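Support reply, case 0932

Customer input (verbatim):
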Amino acid sequence: MGLSLFAAGSLRATLPAFIEQYHQKTGEEWTLTFGPAGLLRQRIEQGEICHLFLSADENNTQQLIQKGIALQYAPFIGNQLCITAHRDCVSEHDTWLSLLANPALKLGTSTPKSDPSGDYCWQLFEKIEQTNPSLGKQLKQRAIPLVGGKHSLTIPVGKMAAHYLITTQQADLFIGYQHYQHILSQFPELMVFTIPNPFNVMAHYCAALIDAQAYGLYQEILSPYAKHYFVDVGFLPLTEPISSMNSGKKENIVINNQCV
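Our regenerated output:
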């Protein structure tokens, strides 16, 4: 039956090829389950079998550590946000901020607390609120969580959320992950805007080791090879050193009767 990997939905397009390469090298069989990281964490807490968990944020992996479910975790790659807009909504003078400030445009996001992408959007709004209090508050009120929740609509297989939601007129703008930018930019009906620093939010994707059987893949995901692999497909290198973290207890992880 193999081992079970739960992974953030934003890894769906890139992770399978990485896992297939790992399978060819080691012979290990893995079953992949993708979805909003917050909802996946809840499934793990409810007892679903999962040996390794890849979250788009640190909070969900920390919660598994605190509850004694995960053995350790570490960040492995980064990401940021971008804004996708329907080209018909954009004037030649528009910027990322003027689009967000336009109350006539429907603004779609993912769902906070269920999906880290939604949490990052609210962090973005809070940063905007520090320099423009009224706009930050308006964005929190206007934003429509369209995906990533328990009862959200399902994006058709093979479709990208930003493209699908905008072309089906459910949103005029969508805030999502930057690693999709190179693909979204190829659609003539869309325009993608980079959110500059210091407003943008850095996402730290983390791997949580839940069962010692998954230690090999856990180490592979933290390797320099994995870093280059994910950066090549649009993710960002971490801005701080990768360091393994655990619950604070000194634990030995046993693999094949040997401590590691």
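We compared this against your earlier run and they match. Two observations from our side: The first strand starts at residue 3 and ends at 8. The CA atoms of residues 51 and 211 lie 5 Å apart. Please reopen the case if you see a mismatch on your end.
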